Fold TlpA family protein disulfide reductase.
Amino acid sequence: MIKPATLFLATFLLTVMSYAQVASDLPAMHVTGLDGKNFSVKSLKGKTVVVMFQPDCDHCQREATQIQENIAAFKPYQLYFITTATSAEIKKFAAEYKLNTYANVHFGTTTLGDILGTYGPIETPSLYIYNADGRLVKKFNGEANIHVVKKHL
């Protein structure tokens, strides 16, 4: 008979290993864009930045302001702001931080289950930079200084 502690440890290790494996490449997280179309983050092409955020998070709001003020640095990238919020909340956030006017900035929604299954428990905002091959270059869990982020673009 397997002891509960052994079962817990085995489950924990498998979970950690699966997070580490998913985090090194563009994840297969399901997203619904504001246009209503569903896609997997894994299907994105080119240099990509994924920003996990919540519209009412003050850290996310500061980071959005910094990204908007430094948008030229993100020109070679497609930015995907992803949240569990409603479309109305996302549209308000995008307009308030003037991110809805850039062709390379996209917004979408996903489920908490998809976030946890992809990245595990994370702080918001969390920002993930992927190269053109879909490999993780750098991750920032929690609010990041834009000047540090720009060094990894």
Remarks:
- DSSP finds five helices and seven strands in the chain.
- The first strand starts at residue 30 and ends at 33.
- Residues 4-23 form the longest helix (20 residues).
- The two ends are 51 Å apart (CA to CA).
